[in-house]
Amino acid sequence: MIVAMQERAAEEQIDAVIDAMVEAGVSVHRTTGSSQTILAGVGPTANVELSKFEVMPGVERVHRISSPYKLAGRAFRPEGTAVDFANDVKIGGQQVAVIAGPCAIENREQIFTIAKCVKAAGAGFLRGGAFKPRSSPYAFQGLGIPGLQLMHEAAREHGLLTVSEVMEIAQIEPMLQYTDCFQVGARNMQNFNLLRELGQARKPVLLKRGIAATIEELLLSSEYIMAGGNYDVILCERGIRTYETTTRNTMDISAIPVLHKLSHLPVVADPSHGTGRRDMVAPMAKAAVAAGADAILVEIHPNADKAASDAAQTLYLDQFEKLMGELRVIAGAVGRTL
Amino acid sequence: MIVAMQERAAEEQIDAVIDAMVEAGVSVHRTTGSSQTILAGVGPTANVELSKFEVMPGVERVHRISSPYKLAGRAFRPEGTAVDFANDVKIGGQQVAVIAGPCAIENREQIFTIAKCVKAAGAGFLRGGAFKPRSSPYAFQGLGIPGLQLMHEAAREHGLLTVSEVMEIAQIEPMLQYTDCFQVGARNMQNFNLLRELGQARKPVLLKRGIAATIEELLLSSEYIMAGGNYDVILCERGIRTYETTTRNTMDISAIPVLHKLSHLPVVADPSHGTGRRDMVAPMAKAAVAAGADAILVEIHPNADKAASDAAQTLYLDQFEKLMGELRVIAGAVGRTL
Amino acid sequence: MIVAMQERAAEEQIDAVIDAMVEAGVSVHRTTGSSQTILAGVGPTANVELSKFEVMPGVERVHRISSPYKLAGRAFRPEGTAVDFANDVKIGGQQVAVIAGPCAIENREQIFTIAKCVKAAGAGFLRGGAFKPRSSPYAFQGLGIPGLQLMHEAAREHGLLTVSEVMEIAQIEPMLQYTDCFQVGARNMQNFNLLRELGQARKPVLLKRGIAATIEELLLSSEYIMAGGNYDVILCERGIRTYETTTRNTMDISAIPVLHKLSHLPVVADPSHGTGRRDMVAPMAKAAVAAGADAILVEIHPNADKAASDAAQTLYLDQFEKLMGELRVIAGAVGRTL
Amino acid sequence: MIVAMQERAAEEQIDAVIDAMVEAGVSVHRTTGSSQTILAGVGPTANVELSKFEVMPGVERVHRISSPYKLAGRAFRPEGTAVDFANDVKIGGQQVAVIAGPCAIENREQIFTIAKCVKAAGAGFLRGGAFKPRSSPYAFQGLGIPGLQLMHEAAREHGLLTVSEVMEIAQIEPMLQYTDCFQVGARNMQNFNLLRELGQARKPVLLKRGIAATIEELLLSSEYIMAGGNYDVILCERGIRTYETTTRNTMDISAIPVLHKLSHLPVVADPSHGTGRRDMVAPMAKAAVAAGADAILVEIHPNADKAASDAAQTLYLDQFEKLMGELRVIAGAVGRTL
To answer: Is residue B138 scored above 80 in pLDDT?
Structure first.
């Protein structure tokens, strides 16, 4: 860490900062410039709260020099991580993965129809939500574990893997046998208790970026899972909140190459939530693959307009099939398969 | 709801929208202008997903006309709500309330020292956190229920009321006997399951605005609690995320008069989280009272620099005493007491 | 326009709003619901300041129903606009155009070297700045008109067209003979005097989105140019300011399909300013083409690190040649050429 | 400046960075840690483009240590600056100044009526716009210099000082004799040519923060004026663009104490533009004074609803008189007069 003192900082102020740094466990190197004193702290600073130093008298700025995440950082595995699933399927390999399915699992017929379409179109993952806490207490709340059983059955019948969102620690255990990959939603990105428990689970975790989370915060959250020993984390960009209101969120496509530069973890893009509009899903899915996404997550439904939730951003099955063909060409154009 | 069709919308497109509106349960009034057709939907639209209509072919824009919140709206109680506590204490009345205490309850001595200071300074509420899920698994995680017991004892000894954050449904029951007001943190503002349960609790709820939540979303979340029959909701502005990085968050002082205009619920301001910097707490607390805040929530600690969490934004006890004096003058200047 | 009154609005308040609407030149249709009165204003509302109605007593919300831009709207030319240049070159046609060059024209050798490379790589437009008002008064301020002459000479020698930024009305006239397309920078997007003058010029205008401008504001600014009779406007997405700080701006790739939906004007993407980082230019250029961009604008320099300005986001010539090859493949993948 | 290298940076990469730092004119101190190398650059770095270093191979982060502004920094005049006007009036002194007037000067009667009210209410400054480039070419464009003459005459008759916005360099000279303080609007905050010219003018400059400008950028723009020798700069907070849409902008009240901490320049608050709503002007003006603002700028009009521009945010004269009384009490509560 570096503490830059104000130009006219008094010697007692400088001493107080040095004492505080030493107390925080770092060794201090002092550089006294003609106008400004700089204090460099060397040592383990990951758990030091820098803001504490920022409000000390005489301090101008404080900078963290070393990256606050270690396990998630690119330097930890310069060659990159591919998360392995059954049947030799990977996310993060040469092949771009596709994860498709309804926002919510509604009934047997719905999920089996979708599973068939997902397989036929060449995608490898079936997704669907079983727990749907809705803003209205009168709206559909999801089928729960029986829904997951249905999805699991449909997936296995068609040789697909399953992805589903876990919302509470208590759901981890019952979900385990029906889920190949846990999804952590944007609202839970900083639910540290949940992340810690998932660090103990031996299943891959797809971690969505919070609607107002920075890239650094996303990586810190992934670090939390990895600290428990679960290194199979997949990061997901799904749109951030900005001042623009034409789209529900602003999908940060540049987060894809930035995450690849900063981290070794694979990156998934979710153009359904990223845009909130069915007519924007295809162009943004193509943009994401062109920018290097390792997987695409997309909401589909045979009767999209009547979907129990997220109707506006859900593709019809024929739209999805068409999109798969287009993505295959883009993947080829960036040297990958799909 | 109003659906404005595109200028060259085809008659079939218009018919399809009308059908969908009727199906959603509203009666449709059609106005055919020289260039544009407008469809007005009259009826209960609170649970209609408007985004569904936005992506229909030929649609230009969709507007919700009636407010999506009813119970929280100003029209529900034009005279305003004052939340009643024991000892004739109110939040939302003529007197500006002050809620002060440490970020985390650390030990008996700490919380008793603080309680004494809070009382002496003339504040009515003691706050402190018992559950502290931290970004680092090695950091202090809070004392749990025993911590709450300590705070409750300290509060009762000094005639104070207690406020503490509830993070999970399972904590509601054990917290009940030690807590006079539940706080819902910014990260849980849209934890609808938790809000629903608190709607059943017969204790006031202080609901913090999420870091990227709009004022409308905050009111929708309060509606969720009120729908369960618990009308004692206190709204809290605590800073939003913007592009500005000098302060940790940008405290939206204008949210105070806006909330008072849109809703009958009392409004609390939290300048500690709102700014993240000890030296900004006093000016922003004064600004909040000048703008009409019904209460101020502030973090204090006898040894602020060594506080187990949030050290940078925590006031020393003497700073708090000084602030109380200043706030009393500002309260008087806007026709209130403190 | 639609004015939704508050639930308990008094009859006098409703009458006052109706009077104000009539005075503003619209005919009013009143719908009295069981709980709420709705006033629909029909007529020319493009110049009506809606905010005036929002603050009238008893008003809940005001909505503009008709689009505030007409000439820029998709309905004006459903088939889309291709801006024509000399030599049968178009922006907005089947071929994706590429506009490349240095941030600033520095000297004869520099601009001729770059022109040769631009041509060899297959791009059609040479860009370069002649006026460079810099934050430091000691920094390089641009070569002015003599710089434009150099660029024009280099472009003509290689059969290229030129794009250069105009910053003041007084520059339009002297720039005319050396410039095939005027660029309006992000900071001037709402310099309405300048836009009005460019509406009189008979040269295409490339209009950059302001760093905090909404898509609607961008279209309103283009309307301003078109109102003068100059319909050859090209819109440019170049990154917006958000809370994320890893990239200098957040490039809003979704603005490309959104603009294509709302408007008939061609859309250019500028990944150099959009990201501010050389290593992010290629992935974001590819994403933009995949999302449907009609042209790419990119900063290049034979000695990028020593460029007089924007060094960090400027590509070396060999990086540009490589990018052209990659973009050609992506263009093919979305059914276009480059 | 500090360059933190990546953990596995190669020795050649480190050497290349050192060379580039030396070339940029700084002396380099190298610290080789167990995992990371840190390069500290000492010397004049104000004009060094740090982003250039950020994209060099092997670099993790680059930090500017010394403040990029010197003349505007608090250290330059720790005691603070009060800008002096005629008649012993100051902005930045013990007395809170009030600047009031219409958005646009419309006619003799209007500006004389307003001047009389401004004086009677106890304010010292009359403001009004003479140049009004509007989004619609058919809207009122301002009276120009004759309007300024009217305002100047009205001001002098009532012993007031005048503030008016300058939009182009060519307006400075003709405005000089009628204007006691130049205002630079939010859209021109980074019009460096205009700022440079105002640095030569010997009149105070009220510099508005851009709608998406950081506090640091505002201070850098003020530095530009001061570099020309004009130290009479007054900074103005007038609302920033955020994701919240209930208010037109989010007024960043915390910018007031932050600017006072970072700079010696006086700070004005503009609650009219800051909120865009007449009913929010009073609470936000009070909040600004409570937070330490040195002056308040407010739009008023005898017939606010019919004002030629900014009608929704303009106060009626009686509302202004009432506000003056309230502000006087708040000023007293923070130890100032008004």
So the answer is: no
Strands D2-5 and D59-63: antiparallel
Q: What's the CA dihedral at A174, A179, A184, A186 to 10 degrees?
A: -120
Asked whether residue D270 carries a pLDDT value surpassing 80, the answer given is: yes
Q: What CA–CA distances, in Å, run from A274 to A114, A256, C110, C141?
A: 22, 13, 42, 41
C-alpha closest to that of A126 among A167, A87, A89, A154: A154
The tokens for B306 are 């060594």
pLDDT tier at A205, thresholds 50, 70, 90 = very high
CB pairs under 8 A between B and C: 53
Q: Which amino acid is at B165?
A: E
What pLDDT band is residue A136 in, cutting at 50, 70 and 90? low
DSSP string, B73-92: BGGGSTT---EE-GGG-EES
What pLDDT is stored for residue C139 in this prediction?
65
Q: Does A211 reach chain B within 8 Å, measured CB to CB?
A: yes
Q: Which helix (H) or strand (E) holds B152?
A: helix B145-157
- Amino acid symbol at A70: K
A56, A24 Cβ separation under 8 angstroms:
no
Percent of chain B scored above 70 by pLDDT?
98
Cα–Cα distances (Å) from C173 to B314, C131, C198, in that order, read 60, 14, 10
Beta strands in chain D (DSSP E): 2-5, 27-32, 37-42, 59-63, 83-84, 90-91, 97-101, 125-127, 161-165, 181-184, 205-208, 233-237, 267-269, 295-299
CB atoms within 10 A of CB C86: 8
Q: Which positions ≥6 away from A95 have C-beta within 8 Å? A: A336, A337, A338
Q: What is the pLDDT of residues C173-220, one digit of tens each?
A: 999 999 999 999 999 999 998 999 999 998 999 999 999 999 999 999
Query: Residue B91 half-sphere exposure, CB side, CA atoms within 13 Å?
Result: 31
B248 close contact with A: CB closer than 8 A: yes
Query: Quick check: B166 contacting D, CB < 8 Å?
Result: no
- Asked whether C241 and D212 are in contact (CB, 8 A), the reply is yes
Contact yes or no for A313 and B220 at CB 8 A? no
**Chain D residues 81-140 within an 8 A CB cutoff of chain C:** 133-139
Alpha-carbon distance of B83 to B163, in angstroms, equals 14
ipTM of the complex: 0.92
* pLDDT mean values, one per 10 residues, chain C (338 residues): 86 92 86 79 77 88 82 91 94 97 95 97 96 67 93 97 95 96 96 93 96 95 94 97 93 97 97 92 98 98 85 93 96 95
Q: Which residues of B touch A135 (CB under 8 A)?
A: 190, 192, 220, 224
User: Which of B220, B237, B238, B244 best probes binding to D when mutated, by most D CB atoms within 10 angstroms?
Assistant: B244
Contact A55 B134 (CB under 8 A): no
What six digits make up the tokens of C213?
């401008």
The whole-angstrom separation of Cα D308 and Cα C55 is: 16
This prediction has a pTM of 0.92
